[in-house]
Amino acid sequence: MAQTPSPWLSLDDALAFSLSNVSPLDETVSLPVASSLGFVLADDLISPVNVPPADNSAMDGYAVYASDTQSPSPLTVVAEQFAGMSRPDKKQEKGTAIRIMTGALIPPGADSVVMQENTVRDATQVVIAKPALVGENIRRSGADIEMGSTVITKGTALNAAHLVLLHSMGISHVTVTRPLKVGILATGDELVEPGNTLSSGQIYESNRIGTRALLAQLPVTITDYGIVADDKKALSDILTKASKEQDLLISSGGVSVGDADFVKELVAQLGEINFWKVAIKPGKPFAFGKLSSTVFCGLPGNPVSAFVTAQQLVLPIIRRMAGIATQHNTTTLTLTARLQQDIKRRKGRQEFLRARMYQDSDQQWCVAPLSKQSSGVMTSITNANCYLVLPAEVSEVKAGDTVLVQPLRLNDHWAGQ
Questions:
Q1: Which residue from 209, 207, 203 is spatially nearest to 189, judged by alpha carbons?
Q2: 8-27+178-328 has which CATH code?
Q3: Which residues contact 38 (CB under 8 A, 6 or more apart)?
Q4: What is the sign of the dihedral through the CA atoms of 7, 9, 15 and 19?
Q5: What is the rounded CA–CA span in Å between residue 333 and residue 403?
Q6: CATH assignment, 335-407
């Protein structure tokens, strides 16, 4: 793995370097479609069938010859065709109609289906009130999917709609990239597991649960190595163990410059550190390297810093290693909005201000930063619905300026503040 030219990188450079130094897994597994949600397709999926498999009716109505409907003369109803019934062997005669249900196979000869709302029916005959067009209300074989066509491309993370599509083609199992093995740990003598009583100087550890939650929808299996004290021997043992078991190890804490911050030092001894400072706020002390063949990501200890760097740096790395198509590795929904108050700050780092965005009465997107922006204040994340992203070179923006925002939750309440 190459060293970066400088330990202090922009977010874009840090991300580009990280992604260029990790590779997609080349191991695959076969899974039932019902168990494949979120997994990454290992090969292009070619349809084994036409969908729909045969011409069928898109409406409840009558199968007819379109040419028979150009006059109001009644047509004789000669049969019924329900979904699930075989296609009739005998060709439908001119001057007749067949009662047909949605999804039923089109009788031979018929070239149109008239919806029942456009008909008047008595016991044996039907009058077509509106002339039909050839092909009207008929779903043609292969109109959705043609046999032999590529339906889902390699590197696609399967979602609920994909699973419906797979079953519609009669596919019961898919070949996907195996789950990425990810280890997580937190370091610090001050950290205590929730549920225990705090002593003086202690705090509850929360970064591991945040990391697990962010990874929940990705194709990973997680090993939690727990809280590790600021002890070189204990840390070294855990790092060595994880390097033999995991594809990726994520730690929080211990990568800054404090006297008890041993993680970066030990990773450098046991493997390599490629960079450990990124010009973003919050989240400057982020470390990237390797322990043997295990990729290492070291998050800051402050909860907001850990959360932001996990979103901006770790998730793209995992998507790359999991085999998700390159164009989706770093894609983050970014919008523009009108700033609602002046902001002055020290330039030099790209900043992710926690903010609320909303649409005003004119349906224009507006955004305002929250008042609390400390990297230790997790409520700045829970109360926000977006990041207000300020470029590193910007020191001042005015109310009314157009700024960039990244929504955090697409199902949030967006109308008004």
A1: 203
A2: 3.40.980.10
A3: 157, 158, 159, 217, 218, 219
A4: negative
A5: 14
A6: 2.40.340.10
What does the DSSP 8-state code read for residue 362?
A: T
Write down the pLDDT at residue 256. 61
DSSP 313: I
CB 223 within 8 A of CB 236: no
Rounded distance between C-alpha atoms, residue 124 and residue 262, angstroms: 89
Helices (H) and strands (E) in the chain, counts: 8, 30
pLDDT digits (tens, 9 = 90+) for 15-51: 999 999 999 999 999 999 999 999 999 999 999 999 9
Written out in words, the top-level CATH class of the domain with range 56-139 is mainly beta
Identify the CATH homologous superfamily for domain 29-51+143-177.
Molybdopterin biosynthesis moea protein, domain 2 (3.90.105.10)
Q: What are the structure tokens assigned to 88, written together?
A: 């009739």
Domain spans in the chain, listed from the N-terminal domain onward: 8-27+178-328, 29-51+143-177, 56-139, 335-407
Q: Give the residues of the chain that fall short of pLDDT 50.
A: 1-2, 4-5, 259-260
152/164 Cα distance (integer angstroms): 12
Q: Is there a cis peptide before residue 282, judged by omega within 30 degrees of 0?
A: yes
What gap in Å lies between CA 120 and CA 128, rounded to an integer? 7
Residue 259: predicted pLDDT: 45
Residues 6+ apart with CB under 8 A from 254: 187, 188, 230, 235, 260, 261, 262, 263, 264, 298, 301
How far is it, in rounded angstroms, from Cα 311 to Cα 332? 10
Length reported for the chain: 417
Please report the pLDDT score of residue 332 as a whole number: 84
pLDDT the model gives residue 331? 74
